[in-house]
Amino acid sequence: MLNKKKVLLPNGETYAYIDEGNGTETILLVHGNMSSGVHYKPLIERFKNDYRVVAPDLRGFGDSTYLDPIKSLEDLSDDLYLFLAELKINKVHIAGWSTGGAIVLKLAAKHPEMIDKIVLIESASYRGYPVFKKDAEGQAIVGEVYDNIEELALDPVQVLPMVTAFEKNDVAFIKYIWDLLIYPVNKPIKEDDDLYLSETMKQRNIIDIDWCLTTFNMSHSSNLVSEGDGSIDNVVAPVLSLWGDSDIVVLEYMIDETVAALKNVEKVVLKNSGHSPLVDCPNELYKLMLDFF
Q1: 28 vs 58, 84, 92, 121, CA distance in Å?
Q2: Which domains does the chain have, with CATH numbers?
Q3: Out of 113, 144, 168, 196, which could bridge 133 as a Cys pair, Cβ 3.0 to 4.6 Å?
Q4: Spatial CA neighbour of 152 closest among 215, 200, 99
Q5: What is the 8-class DSSP label of residue 184?
Q6: In terms of Cα–Cα distance, which of 207, 224, 206 is closest to 215?
Q7: Are the C-beta atoms of residues 153 and 207 closer than 8 Å to each other?
Q8: What is the pLDDT of residue 1?
Q9: Residues in a beta bridge with 242
Q10: Is pTM beyond 0.70 here?
Q11: Which residues of the chain fall short of a pLDDT of 50?
């Protein structure tokens, strides 16, 4: 059973978080979209005997508050900085899964002194994650992007169906999406699957996160929606980038463009693993991270 604690941040938000283990070094685990700190259960169980493992629910996810809507993924990286300060944690190894990878990169760029080593797990690109306009058949029109969040909220394939599912508490539809896209290789055992789905359904910021992903850009050029801020240059910590060869959510070119932009990075391809190596190959994931740390 993973118990959550809560802490009030100086910005008024309350963060729920899992805090296990009592090692001398701390691992901060940052979850992605449609998830919470609980989704890191396989790694928490494996690391807690040797490390202090901290896995927060980001603002608008899980049991954390959502008082002030986010305008960028940087808002979430700023939350994490405040969160670590409240817990009096000065230095961490940090891992980010999917959207969490982008948040981790921004935190590492703004506060390099706090980051020991970085693990990116199926991470969104440092140039964001595109949501292209759709044609009459629902196919993406590559290169055509939404101009604002109001337009994006009506996207008939990637956004609106998810918004509707959350509004109607349609757990069956969300499970279908996870089984289709996140778990194309293996599925969690039922007990874990039910737990993860219950956490997923707590999300309150799906449109905001989707927009923030499209506008996120740490590069030196435009990603069609926003100009890059060049902050990727400030990421100096060693990075291990992990990508499953069966991932159909984050494609390999997204991984590779981030890897090419980093100074000190190793890429490892996980065989027969999809978007969640936490489910597909937790032992291999743990071993790679342990060796790296």
Answers
A1: 12, 9, 6, 13
A2: 4-292 (3.40.50.1820)
A3: 144
A4: 215
A5: S
A6: 224
A7: yes
A8: 73
A9: 121, 268
A10: yes
A11: none
